[in-house]
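BUG-363 | component: ligand-complex export | severity: low

The export step for 3-isopropylmalic acid jobs runs without errors, but we want the raw record kept on the ticket for reference. Input record follows.
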Amino acid sequence: MSKNVVILPGDGIGTEIVEQAVRVLDVVNETHKLGIETQTFAFGGASYDQSGEPLTEETLNACRAADAILLGAIGGPKYDKAPRDKRPERGLLRLRSELGLFSNLRPALLYPELADASSLKPELVGGLDLMILRELTGGIYFGEPRGIEERNGQRVGFNTMVYGEDEIRRIATSGFEIARQRNKRLCSVDKANVLEVSELWREVVIDVAKDYPDVELSHMYVDNAAMQLVREPKQFDVMVTSNLFGDILSDAAAMLTGSIGMLPSASLDINGKGMYEPVHGSAPDIAGTGKANPLATILSVSMMLRYTLNEAAAADQIDTAVATVISNGVRCADIAGTGQSGKETLVNTAQMGDAVVAAIQAS
Ligand code: IPM
Ligand code: MG
């Protein structure tokens, strides 16, 4: 039975890193006889340039029909002046929403060899392995009413942070399930001392916890969580939080590893179908220079094989190949100079792809 993967390279370095990730996918597809077929579509700014829409109906329908989606990155300064509803980000938000990708897994995992790349002391981050679970289709990103309008002679901008019980229950359940497969500790992050929406969030999370007596639940206000992430990040196992808080905290957590270019992510619907993408953005400043690190996207392919396509052996092979390449000192610019000087080889985007492909073929 063939499986259908939609590839959305996007903008900026998106096209460059996806090219390498697709090479890796092709190799495991062949060796493991996975029967994966890929189809590529323009998305984000690239799509806007072609058709005036960041997400066309054709692309949306292909994504609906796909078993999984691999996304590079979208956006860039070129699109800052596009009408608000035509910006690349709007395409991404619509895709998340239309596909019901409510559960966004953003792991922050530190490779031991890269501990020096972190802005924190190695002893604070050595062995860091935390998972941020971000609610992705609700909250202030999608809440109504929203807009900019004239009130009493001046313009006023407003958004609404809103969560229904079902939305909270659904993401909390994902959080407990993920914690159960890890170290069984879940920290729910909210702002319940100020926001009613958070008060309800906390109430529902506590209710869901009744079904997970084996998971230790804690609660933290988001300001404190931001502080604790940079103070003592290893206290966390899984953090579950709302769309906006998760957006912010996951960037902070990613930077703790010193190598945002290493981090994959998954956005899943209720059936486990997913869209996979690197945590980092389209980095227009380095697009076309060969400096982009494709490992986050390559690791996104691995997550896709593991979580949606149920091909754990192929996923393991990719993870092992990436770990080998890192321990052999192969480095893109973003992770170069991390305490292994003398043993490091600086490579460009395509050479990093070569190294991973070679490590897979040698395994
Ligand atoms: C992310 C990004 C997006 C978000 C942008 C590009 C719309 O920052 O995936 O974290 O805010 O969700
Ligand atoms: Mg973000």
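Assignee comment: Attached the raw record above. The chain has a mean pLDDT of 95.
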